Amino acid sequence: MTSPDKGEEREGPVIRDRRRIDPKTGKLREPAETPAPETPDEGGAGASDEELSSLKTQLSERLADLQRLKAEYDNYRKRVERDRVAVREQALGQVLSELLPVLDDIGRARDHDELTGGFKSVAESLEAVTGKLGLERFGEKSEPFDPTVHEALMHSYSAEVTETSVADVLQPGYRIGERVLRPARVAVAEPDPGAEAAADESGDDGE
Hints:
It is a single chain. By secondary structure, the chain is of the alpha+beta class. The chain is built from 3 helices and 6 strands, in the order ααββββββα. The N and C termini lie far apart (172 Å). It comes from Actinomadura violacea.
């Protein structure tokens, strides 16, 4: 029986130690390196373009939504402001309407030279305060008659007017802004039809 040569290696089972902790050192072994992920081929470029286009579309939609929301908010804010002004004018109108008889008395006293002394000072202060609150007096003699702000209590004809006009102011009107609290009560004069007829006849005779 021949003995094997010393230079020959003995064949046998191969044992691989896969333990994560080295039994000799007691330390954690480093894991084997994992292969790097494969680089995507050029076919992925098309997908990126589609994603970019989709993002642009979404951004445009969101921007349109924001612009629409801003427009709605602006309209809401303007509506609230208009309502606030209307409520303020209505409240002021109710208060100032109660003071109109007092202002009428002050006006009559002034017309009769009876606005003197302490009463004059109080009256002028009241008129100043109501003026600051936006109360405006209107109605003047000889101005054109306007049925939206004038209330005709008397009617006459006059050769001195060429259109329906205010002949006299019986009671002044008051308003706040565009809101009329009380129309001016006036006497109205219309052009005299007899005078117009006489003028027409005179013109015919001249021909």
